[in-house]
Amino acid sequence: MPAKLFSPFTIKGVTLKNRIVMSPMCVYSSHNEDGHVQNWHRTHYTSRAVGQVGLIIVEATAVTPQGRISPQDLGIWSDDHVDGFQELVALGKEHGAKMGIQLAHAGRKAVLEGEILAPSALPFNEKMKTPKEMTKTDIADTVEAFKTGAERAAKAGFDVIEIHGAHGYLINEFLSPLSNKRSDEYGGSTDNRYRLLREVIDAVKTVWNGPLIVRVSAHDYHEEGLTAEDYITFAEWMKEQGVDLIDVSSGAVVPAPIHVYPGYQVPYSETIKKGADISTGAVGLITSGIQAEEILQNDRADLVFLARELLRDPYWPRTAAKELGISIEAPKQYERGWV
Ligand SMILES: Cc1cc2nc3c(=O)[nH]c(=O)nc-3n(C[C@H](O)[C@H](O)[C@H](O)COP(=O)(O)O)c2cc1C
């Protein structure tokens, strides 16, 4: 039976040539602190396209300057950013990859000069800044920034948009009762804590009708926090709003320890996929072709997202194919050395 890892997957009319996704990874390489694409990005992402990754999701890209994690993050808060992304997208597509971008706002995890924003004025830990509690205007401006970011991503030619709702950044801070202590309509009940994400998705969808992914942290690792069961409800709402796939990560909304082992987040993907009847991506210490194949064949996810393994091996699709005893198409320039 042919490997499912190398079978195509279609999301909203966009067909990925295989199930391998380069998980978003910040490379902190916008050296001029202006959020622009640099040669490093061109080389780094294009190498994985040459390596036959099906979908490349460009790292957390800030929708506002204060939404960056660091001054070296990529940004999409200005029309000036579009040209750089257009070039990056064209390079990736030239080698057969589909190109995605992760739209992000760091919230209270921004390590920047000046004011940083969050649902409540609570720092992540004692070493980090205390954020300002967002006003309704701050919230409306942020929703608008995700929308204009999505509009620019569409202009740049991206195939896929992923909204960053994980890892304790702004959207995750609103979702979790551990970081959201608001008493207005953006805090308290589950649907109130979901309100920001609901508004962001609706706003993005007014300018984007392509595949939409949301990355979530499906476990807070805290007794008063959220679990994958809670995320079934969020995923059902996202599905109703037209989100196509949930990229299931976990943790980092509070500094709780995480017990990490191969495939540790796969059960959360499985819970959400079955619980909400929605497509999912699994991520976290997925490193071998056999492991990836097990996840897909047992319907625990529709896509596998790899991060660090693709840093070590940009041609991991070839490595995985060899492990599974099959051969995949090579870039024609590499045919003599690919087998
Ligand atoms: C250098 C680095 C940068 C990362 N940056 C991001 C990011 O921009 N957005 C995001 O959602 N996750 C980010 N992550 C998390 C990865 O996407 C992935 O979820 C995590 O590393 C687990 O997968 P792995 O075991 O395959 O590395 C980053 C991870 C690394 C190692």
Automatic annotation (TrEMBL):
Chain residues that bind substrate: 28, 164-167
Organism: Neobacillus rhizosphaerae
Top EC class of this enzyme: oxidoreductase
EC number(s) per entry: 1.6.99.1
SUPFAM superfamilies xrefs: FMN-linked oxidoreductases
Subunit-structure text: Homotetramer.
An example molecular function term from Gene Ontology annotations: NADPH dehydrogenase activity
InterPro entries: Aldolase_TIM, NADPH_DH_bac, OxRdtase_FMN_N, YqjM-like
Domain NADH:flavin oxidoreductase/NADH oxidase N-terminal: from-to ranges: 4-324
Cofactor: FMN
HAMAP family associated with the record: NamA
Keyword flag Acetylation: no
Protein name from the UniProt record: NADPH dehydrogenase
Protein's UniProt keywords contain Oxidoreductase: yes
Function: Catalyzes the reduction of the double bond of an array of alpha,beta-unsaturated aldehydes and ketones. It also reduces the nitro group of nitroester and nitroaromatic compounds. It could have a role in detoxification processes.
Keyword line: Detoxification, Flavoprotein, FMN, NADP, Oxidoreductase
Family per similarity comment: Belongs to the NADH:flavin oxidoreductase/NADH oxidase family. NamA subfamily.
Catalytic reactions on record: A + NADPH + H(+) = AH2 + NADP(+)
List of residues binding FMN: 23-26, 60, 102, 215, 307-308
